[in-house]
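Entries read sequence, tokenised fold; example below:

***
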Amino acid sequence: MAVSHLVLLLMIWTQSYGSEAVQFRLLNKCGFTVWPGMLTSGGSAEGWKLKPQETMTISRDGNWSGRFWGRTGCKFNGSGEGRCATGDCNGLNCRGGGVPPVTLAEFTLGGYGGNDFYDVSLVDGFNIPLKIRPKDGSGSCRVTSCKSNVNAVCPNDLKVWNGNSVVACKSACLAWGESQYCCTGAHNKPATCPPSTFSRIFKDTCPDAYSYAYDDLTSTFTCSSANYDITFCP
């Protein structure tokens, strides 16, 4: 995640109000197994397995902050040790965040004004389509998603291959680490870090998703007292 995006989420998180438990329902609509991962803002991680059409529900405190993602192409032994082609987090149960590029579902619950803040982020890249749908909340509560397969339009220099298949698409920042793409150094504010040719590909394909560090206005959404569905391959 780009630095400015992380700072924004942490600022929201530090002004917390909520306390009631929130239910996250994970749904796998892909035609293949997905291994969801979760990382909290405090650094603890968990991971699971979801076969096609399976669902699972996770409960978290109303002040929780963190992210979910879907791992693909995983192979684990009976002890849960192994690797994934995308989103790897060091074992079935995860011992850290997912290795980018991955599509992220990011949440800060009970933030400023009692609102939950959430987004779908492609700041570090994309691996599979993802959708966030709030349920039973109040306020704007918009559905946000990246439903399209960004891998199909990924520039050659950003493609991640597994055998003969493109399994993920890097962001320009992840691929090259240059300040004009990462919004760092002399490019550390919106005026000096406009969208790039590469971030526009993400934005054109998935208009609601974060495409680069200063994409806040069209990519962060709010809801209050909601539960959330996170769907892989909606």
